[in-house]
Amino acid sequence: MAPPTPIEIVVRARRSYASAQGELAQASAARVQASSTMLPATSEWMNQSRTVLRAAPPPWLMPGSLAHAIGRGPASGAGLTPPPAEFSNSESEFHHYVTGAATGARELPTLLTLQINGEARDVLAPTHKTLLEVLREDLNLTGTKHGCELGECGTCTVLVDGVPVLSCLALPVECQGHEVQTVEGMARGGQLHPLQQAFAELGAAQCGYCTPGILLTAEALLADSPTPTRAEVKAALAGNLCRCTGYTKILDAVELAALRMRGQGDAAAGDAGRGAAEGEPSGYEKHGGTAEE
Fold first, then answer.
1. Superfamily of domain covering 110-184
2. Distance CA 61, CA 71 (A)
3. What backbone torsions phi and psi does residue 119 show, to the nearest 5 degrees?
4. H helices then E strands: how many in the chain?
5. Average pLDDT value for the chain
6. What is the pLDDT of residues 222-232, one digit of tens each?
7. Could you tell me which of 266, 263, 292, 274 has the C-alpha nearest to residue 202?
8. What is the per-residue DSSP string for 84-121?
9. Do the beta carbons of residue 163 and residue 220 sit within 8 Å?
10. pLDDT tens-digit map of 78-92
């Protein structure tokens, strides 16, 4: 049998491609038809259920925890019928269902009382908003920064009862009754915190976007361990990413602040500046620190 000519190869390839395209078009049309029949039933159920919820919210949907409501609470509230079989009650769809995002409606805000930087603050906010969003958008505390919003960069770190917390993953309703501190609360009486002063003097901040989260994480470290080793400082700041610096000045600044908070900072401050300029050991090294990188 003679091998196919180049023209025959091209013709066969075009026929195969056309056949595949036809199959894809048929499958796409079938999906569109299935969606058009499913959507009205799902939308009707969502509208009816949302009306029931707004009239008489079941206990498991009251402010306190949306996470408990997502597939973990009772199957229905008073008069709330189960969803159609086609409706997948995933977290995102449940969010749309509760907040009314699918139809343009909005979840009614909840009155929250938060203890922020030593001051009681009342705020009206939907329960699904994160602590990061409430701090920035409702309380105008913009020192806390948006980063990855996935809990991976540490940019949004705040302190809750003195413990570093990623505010992009925390719900404000869960922080009621706890002390929340942002970077705006570090200075006292018009005086910078030793960490802020050390960061400014040693140039530990460049663009500064990650600095609030690093400062608060370092503050929690020094409160727990006033004399940290460089390895301990590195471990504490491992979850705070910086895209500008090489981290060395950040580590230097934390150690300098620790020295000053122990009352050894006067000599260390001068030595740190000279060391940075002349390549000599900085003040934290001369006072017992380590040059480990």
1. Beta-grasp domain (3.10.20.30)
2. 11
3. -130, 135
4. 10, 5
5. 75
6. 999 999 999 99
7. 274
8. PTT----HHHHHHHHHTTTTT--PPPEEEEEEETTEEE
9. yes
10. 444 444 444 444 444
Structure tokens given for 145: 């920064």
Question: In Å, how far from its chain's centre is CA 113?
Answer: 21
Beta bridge partners of 116: 119, 180
Does the pTM exceed 0.85?
A: no
Q: What angle do CA 10, 13, 19 make, to 5 degrees?
A: 140
The answer to whether the beta carbons of residues 211 and 157 sit under 8 Å apart is no
Q: How far apart are CA 293 and CA 233, in angstroms?
A: 11
Tell me the DSSP string of 117-152: TTEEEEEEE-TTS-HHHIIIIIS--TTSPP--SSSS
DSSP-H helix ranges across 134-228:
194-202, 211-224
Structure tokens at 74: 């009772």
Q: CATH classification of 192-286 is 1.10.150.120, yes or no?
A: yes
Domain locations along the chain? 6-99, 110-184, 192-286
